[in-house]
Every structure is written in structure tokens, then in C-alpha cells.
Amino acid sequence: MQATAHQTVLEPANDLGALFIKAPGTCGELLQGAIDGQDFLVNCPINLFSYAKVQRIGSAGLQLQHEHRYTKIRDTILLAAEEHEFSLNHALEIDSNIPRGKGMASSSADISAAFEAICRSSDLSLTAEAFAHTVTEVEPSDLVHFPGVSHINHLTGQLFESMPAPEEMSILVIDCGGHIDTVMFDRIKARSLYRNHQPELCAMLKLLKTGLYTNDLAAVAKAATQSAKFNQQIHFKSQFEDLLAISLAAGALGVNCAHSGTVLGVMYRSNELLEERLINGISKYFGNDINIIGNHHMISGGCYEY
Questions:
Q1: How far apart are CA 118 and CA 213, in angstroms?
Q2: How far apart are the C-alpha atoms of 208 and 228, rounded to whole Å?
Q3: Using CB atoms within 10 A of its CB, is residue 283 exposed (0-12), middle (13-18) or buried (19+)?
Q4: How confident is the model at residue 191 (pLDDT cuts 50, 70, 90)?
Q5: Are strands 61-64 and 89-96 parallel, antiparallel or unpaired?
Q6: Beta strands 254-257 and 263-269: pairing type?
Q7: Tell me: the pLDDT tens digits for 140-183?
Q8: 12-305: what fold?
Q9: pLDDT band of 189, cuts 50, 70, 90
Q10: Could you give the CA distance from residue 56 to residue 17 in angstroms, rounded to a whole number?
Q11: Most buried residue among 52, 180, 201, 230 by CB atoms closer than 10 A?
């Protein structure tokens, strides 16, 4: 069972006058919860991207290729045009390497890349906070347009803190199977659990932030693993405990999760031999019970031209 590679089909060299923007997906989250009634997550951007291509056209309106697949992009851009009073005369294409319905921020990345491309093409300069507010009016979001690793309210778009991405942190992304719509996440059950465990959540968040600021990969992975264990009470993944045990025994640092998705992430200090050992050990133990989506690096969030 091998990690798969993905290639984008949007080639900038062949389209003069077009603008090309990419935004990262995530391997779930490093931590998610609610403290003092404030919902939050700390996102986990990885080098797996959604790509947007935009061109100005002669007619008014938005021409979105495969619009039926990207209704949330359409809704975000139409809302933004109304809120920020700019005209649409754009043709937009999206291509994504990010698996959908797995908790890897595929929709967040699509929307961020498309919205940023439209903004730049329209000479519209929005603050990152205003951008986030518009995005979260359409759906909850990991807000991958913020730079670094972001502590956010994914429901309102509020940024609490932006921290540096860890250096040399690799994540083997494991899919446990199935699809989940983020909107269907049992938030009532989750909030009840969070209310009863405030001290633990505060300690996890403090450990995670300390690890990110000091590039202590072990601390980052420990906090993320604690959050994933906690999430077993909300969204149970039967493979989690065995995957954690096998990964730690092989030299990994921990396992994070998509709190409202199907993926787990084996976190380890970047090393090709360790990567091979992890892939072989996990594949041998689980067989067809899991799918290794790919091996990726944690990166800083943001929308980039390419």
C-alpha cells in the first residue's frame, strides 16, 4: 500500500493573462475544542493544494467551471461581491489534489484559492480577518488563508493567534474510510464534553503553542495526540489506538486527527527511512482496513501565486 502522488492540471504557462492561486488543505486539526464557550481549532496545513485559475471576461457575471461541484465557492464569491461592492466579470476554474469528505479542508482550500484569485483579479484588498468573516458566513472553515498555523474560531472567522509552522514535521495521512460532511458534526455533543474538560483543553492548547513557538515537535505531537484521544469520545475511529501504538513503536511522535472527518495523521520528524518503516508497518498490520492517502509536510497557511 503506497502513498499516492497528485498532479494539478492547471498549467499557468499555457494561459497568458490568467491569474493562478493555490491554497493548502490540512491533515485534520492539531487541536479542537471550546474554552469559556468559545469554539476553536488549531489548523494543520500541509503541502497538498487546491488550485484556482481566474481570467477577466467581456460579459458580466461569474463563469464557474463545473459549478454544480462548487456551489460553496459560488456562494462565497457572490456574497463577497455584494458585501464589498465589486463587479464580477470573471471565468474561474478549480482543480484540487485534496480528497473530499475526509476532514482535509478540501472545501476551505477551494474557497480560499478561488476567493483570493477573484480578489486579486478585481484589485480588491481585504484584510485576512475580513476574508475570514466572509468565508465563514457560508460554512465553517479551517481558514487556511491565514499565514502560519492558526488558532481560530472556525464558525465566526475570528483569529486568536497565528503561530509558526513547525520545521521538519512530516505527516503520513491515513484514511479510516467513509465520508463526513463537516456541517453534520455533532456540535452539541462536542460542546457538552468540552464544557466538562476545560482544564485539560487549556493545558493541551498551552502545550501546543509552546511546541509551535519553540519548534518542539514532540510537544506539538503530544498535544495533537491528546486532542485526538479526546475526540474519540465524539467521533470514534476504530483504528486509532492500534495506529497510535504501532506508530509510536516505529519511532513516530504521535497521531492527530480530523475532528469532524475520517483521517488520522501519523506525525514524525522528517526522515525517509522512518517514513518507509511506518508505511510498511502500518500497511502490514491494517491491510485493506485503511488507505494511506499520502505523506506530506506541515507548512504555513496562506494563498500563493504559482
A1: 33
A2: 13
A3: middle
A4: very high
A5: parallel
A6: antiparallel
A7: 999 999 999 999 999 999 999 999 999 999 999 999 997 765 55
A8: Ribosomal Protein S5; domain 2 (3.30.230)
A9: confident
A10: 9
A11: 52
pTM of the model: 0.93
User: Are the C-beta atoms of 67 and 97 separated by less than 8 Å?
Assistant: no
Which residue's entry shows cell 502490514?
284
The grid cell for 177 is: 474510510
Neighbours of 195 (CB within 10 A): 14
Q: How far apart are CA 19 and CA 42, in angstroms?
A: 30
Which pLDDT tens digit goes with each residue over 213-250? 999 999 999 999 999 999 999 999 999 999 999 999 99
Q: What is the 3-state secondary structure (H, E, C) of the chain?
A: CCCCCCCCCCCHHHCCCCEEEEEEEEEEEEEEEEECCEEEEEEEEEEEEEEEEEEECCCCEEEECCHHHCHHHHHHHHHHHHHHCCCCEEEEEEEECCCCCCCCCHHHHHHHHHHHHHHHHCCCCCCHHHHHHHHHHHCCCCCCCCCEEEEECCCCCCEEEEECCCCCEEEEEEECCCCCCHHHCCHHHHHHHHHCCHHHHHHHHHHHHHHHHHCCHHHHHHHHHHHHHHHCCCCCCCCHHHHHHHHHHHCCCEEEECCCCCEEEEEEECCHHHHHHHHHHHHHHHHHHCEEEEEEEECCECCEEC
pLDDT digits (tens, 9 = 90+) for 13-32: 456 689 999 999 999 999 99
Which among 97, 150, 125, 86 is positioned nearest to 298, based on CA atoms? 150
CB 152 within 8 A of CB 45: no
C-alpha cell of residue 200: 485539560
